[in-house]
Each structure stands twice: as structure tokens, then as C-alpha cells.
User: Fold these one by one.
Assistant:
Number 1:
Amino acid sequence: MDLCSTIDLELPAGRRQLVGTGIAIALPFGTVGLIHPRSGLAARAGLSIVNTPGTIDAGYRGEIKVCLINLDPEQPITISRGDRIAQLIVQRVELPEFVEVDELDDTSRGDGGYGSSGGHAVLG
Ligand SMILES: O=c1ccn([C@H]2C[C@H](O)[C@@H](COP(=O)(O)OP(=O)(O)OP(=O)(O)O)O2)c(=O)[nH]1
């Protein structure tokens, strides 16, 4: 579902702003809302979201807001009230009960991460 701006704004290069969408929802328990950028605006103008994906908790009843950021190094981005600025995706989530243990089971990856599998010159 697309989310639209409730305001007109001009976002200068490198700046961010929290923008209202005028939407409040009651998500079913066991789901989460994720706020994603729109790929067209990202590729063409450099518009993104600071905390992408934003998390909308099932218990949240306030207005959904989007923390937009202009990642273009030079050009401002003009947004008009009603423009589609982001998209909301609703997903089911696990609600696990966490249990503290002294050891974890062995896996082939183990504790290797952060590029340990290579695949790029800078990773060695
Ligand atoms: O892009 C976003 C992200 C969050 N929210 C709202 C819904 C969410 O349920 C609430 C809290 O979000 P989050 O848990 O990410 O914020 P926090 O910085 O951890 O603050 P809090 O202490 O309120 O949990 O803010 C939005 O409207 N837009």
C-alpha cells in the first residue's frame, strides 16, 4: 500500500524530515508493518528513508510518519501534498520466547560473518 505526504515540502540535498501520512492503522497481533522507500524516487531523485525499513508495531495507533532523506549530493527534492512517498508492507512475524543458554549448537558458518565468505575484491 502506498503512503502519501500530507504536506508540501522541499528537501534540500543531504537533509531529512519526518513527514506525516495521515494514516493510522490497527494491525493484527502477530503482524508488523514495514515502511519501504519507493524505488523510482530513489533511483531518479535520491529520495530514501533514514530508518528503512521503518517498523510499525501491531499495537501502534498513532499516525504513520516517514523519515525521508534526500541522498542526492546537490539537487533538492520537491514533494507535494498527496505525492506517494513510501510503501507499507504488512508481514506475519514470529513472536518467540527467548531462552538464555550457555552454548549454541555448531553450524558450518559458526561465528564467521561480515564478509568472511568473500565474493568481492575488498573482502579478500
Ligand atoms: O518509520 C516509522 C517507524 C516507526 N513509526 C511509529 C510506529 C512504531 O510502532 C513507533 C515506534 O517505532 P520504533 O519502535 O522503531 O521507535 P523507537 O525509536 O524504538 O521508539 P519507541 O521508544 O517509541 O519504541 O513509531 C512510524 O510511524 N514510522
Number 2:
Amino acid sequence: MDVSSPEERHDSSDGSGTKATEGAIQSSDKPTVILVIGMAGSGKTTLMQRMAAHLSDAGTPAYVLNLDPAVMTVPYGANIDIRDTVNYKNVMKQYSLGPNGGILTSLNLFATRFDQVIQLCEKKRTPQPKYILVDTPGQIEIFTWSASGAIITEAFASTFPTMIAYVVDTARSAAPQTFMSNMLQACSILYKTKLPLLLAFNKIDVVRHEFAVDWMKDYEVFNEALQRDTTYAATLSRSLSLVLEEFYENLKNVGVSAATGEGMDAFFEQVQACAEEYRQLYLPELQKRQKEREQLELKRQQANMEKLRLDTEGTAEHQKQ
Ligand SMILES: Nc1nc2c(ncn2[C@@H]2O[C@H](COP(=O)(O)OP(=O)(O)OP(=O)(O)O)[C@@H](O)[C@H]2O)c(=O)[nH]1
């Protein structure tokens, strides 16, 4: 299937005479990538819209991407939209796929062109975006556990300070076992990507999120909430809660309402803290991995050169005889 090159819908520069110019941006003014991930219906798209509006009101430039090929309408102005590059319905038809297979294949096709997306994100603009906001498909595992999801995440993380905003539907997580499955999902994403992760407890206009913070801080409080439940699943949640204590310690959290805008200043403060964490912890690790890869490549080249030398010497020897 033909995949067109990713294109910008509109440039995010202010149009005040200084048109966006080609050229990589300096590392010091690199925008922070916010990957918005969360279970279906947690409020990712609404939060994207809220973040874009909040930043626009504050006069903070942002660059916005939609990576959900199946979304019907995008209520924020996306600079790059996967739907312009891959037609999800055609993909389903052409490969005889169901909805999830269609999303996965669309994402795979898009990932083959992701270097071009990174180039567009890296373009020097006036004003320079401070954030790159990225909306992901509602089917969480399609993004977090697919090869294309990993390619996209790594492409961002090796180019920009990158963090994950894990959106939780606070109202739906008020049941301890739902809360636990959400935390396990977040935990697996944290350990898979190793990127700074911010738990964004969304919909606090419906249910406040303090109960969740108490559950994370104190195992006994969570245990109490589970007390009335004697099923096997509750026992499992209890044991898991102990295991997750260390995970909770490495997490930042914030309560927000994408609907009303409450908590957005605190949200961006935590995003900044995550960007700092990226620079201090993730970046040195990334540089170490890159160095190791370069050394391996050098060794491979040296071994090939040596093989070539031996082959050439062998041929010369043979011709002499
Ligand atoms: N009350 C309230 N409702 C919200 C909030 N954020 C989102 N919603 C509602 O929750 C529903 C799902 O929101 P979406 O933004 O579509 O969620 P999503 O995670 O992008 O959904 P998928 O793309 O299907 O995964 C919609 O009806 C929203 O209006 C919030 O902060 N408060």
C-alpha cells in the first residue's frame, strides 16, 4: 500500500514575517514531547484540546500531533495528523482487517515514515514551540506494545526531552481493583519505555483524586479499601499493591480536569520536572547505549576489513603460484 509523506496541516509559526526556516534546532531550546497515553475513554483527546488551549492562552507555542488513525474528529488544531498520511478504512479493506488490526497496520505504515515527522518537528520556527503534544490511539496496547509504538517513542526520546502523561479516568478508578489494573498498565509502560511518567488523574470535576494519592502513599489505606472484597482478585490486588510501592515512589502525579481546566498549571509544572528528570536520568543512559552501539558497529567494520584483507592476501598469494 502506498503511504504518502507526512505533511504539516499548518505551520505553527506566528506568521509575523519570519517564516519557518529549515535547520535543526539547538539542543538548549528543544521542545519537550508530551506523549499522551491512557485507556480508552480516559480523556486523552479532551486533555490534548485543553493543553493546546491552555498553552495558547499563555502565549506558549506548541506543536500538535494526532497519531490516532481511527478518530472521527480531532477537536484541536493538529499540525500533523496521521489520517492525512494513512487511510485507516482503506487499510482495513485492503488487508481484510478488523478495527484493531487496522489501527495497528496504519501505525506500522506511519512508523516507516516517522523520520520525516521528526524532521518536521525539528524544523526551526518562529516562535520556537516549547512543547510537542502527541495524542495516541485509544487502544492503549496498540501503541505501547507494538513495534511501531516503540519506534515512534524511541524516535522522539532520542531527539527531544520526552515524557509520558498517563491519563487516568479518576471516577472509573475509584474501585480499588480498577485502580490496580490502571496502575499495572502504567507500571508496564514505565518499565518498557524507561521515560519519566506523570500520572494525570483526569475528570477531577467528577471525583477528586486525593483518594488515589492516599492509596499510592499508604498500603494500609489501599488495603482497607479492599477489605470488604474477599475474592481472589482482591487478594491479588493486595499483594500487587505491596510490589508497586517502589513504582509509586518513582511517579509524579497531578489531578486535572480536561473539561474545566482545573489543575493545568500544576500539570505543566510536573511536565517541567519530568523534562528535568529526562535530562538527568534518561539522557545519560541513552548516550551510553548509543556509544555501545557505535562501538559494536566499529568492531563489526574492523572485522569486515580484516576479512577483506585476508581474502585479498589469499587471492594475491594464489595468483603468484
Ligand atoms: N466530566 C469530565 N468529562 C471528561 C473529562 N475529560 C474527558 N471527558 C469526557 O470523557 C469522554 C471521553 O473523552 P475522550 O477525550 O474522547 O477520551 P479518549 O481517551 O481520547 O478516548 P479514546 O480516543 O476513545 O481512547 C468524553 O465524553 C469527554 O467529554 C473531564 O475532565 N471531565
